[in-house]
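Aim 2 progress. For Alpha/beta fold hydrolase, the working sequence is reproduced below.
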Amino acid sequence: MLQRTGRVTTGDGVELAYAESGTGRPLVYVAGWLGHLDLSWELPEERGYLEALARGRRLVRYDRAGTGLSAAASGAPSLEAEVAQLSAVVERLGPEPVDVMGVSLGAPVAAAWAAAHPDRVRRLVLYGGWALGAELSPPSAREHMLGLVGAHWGLGSDVLTAVFAPDLASADRAQLARYQRACAPAETARELLALGYRIDVRGLLGHVASPTLVVHRTGDRAVPVSEGRALAAGIPGARFVELPGRSHLPYAGDTAALLTAVRRFLGLRGARRPAAVLTPRQQEVAGLVAEGLTNREIAARLGIEERSAEGHVERIRLRLGVRSRAQIAAWHAGRGR
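Predicted structure tokens for this construct:
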């Protein structure tokens, strides 16, 4: 699946980058805390998840101001600015109602926008969101995290990755931490994190008129499930679906269950596990496994250490959800070429 990118300008002159993939009715995706349209498309787990969302829909994503490919705004992040950015993206899609999905920080933003634009939303999906940011953690923990992100973005991104995605393999968590740092500088990351802590959409939820699905994982380590329940309770007629799991990121953990709930609510067929996407190096290693090479032989062929080859094979096995080298070889023969 290809991704098409473009630019749109908000009413106050901030240039935002957006991307589209798939075809059909628009599904406008309001992402979480940090994002990068190009780099997220290169993360195998996230791309598999996004492509599954885009089957049967035209998935429209954007980088919020100051992150990814978008320009920085002149003022500090605010809920009002977030709503204005979402409006700019939706306006270019035409007058017809659209489906909207908000994830993490994007959930209260999407809910606020839906409350202000009831005639523009066909269906609303909120995942991993909250109504009151002050309920995310105690004040001391919030201040500690803000200080850590602002003073030591490297360590801060590592800590947040462990909270957001405990189900990812260690190598993938390290990649995710690097990804967060590439999305935004420390000060922007800190300001957006602070915005999440101070958001309060409780007074807006009653104005959401569209059919709404709220999904939350029971053991979410970043956002208590009670906040998902609060979102659903505040929106008239909202349906609440609680899924097992502890990862906050939608593409970590049992992604298939989440995708199935979302797609069925949108009137689409349920989803299977997203197709595994390997990095170019992993594709190469899988091919050498299919040739019958041992880890030592793979290391020699690629000019790397044997333990590095072993690590590649293990990550391939985890990503494909298989148990043996023979299954890796079978995957390569049937799908990997």
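DSSP finds 14 helices and eight strands in the chain. This observation will guide construct design in the next reporting period.
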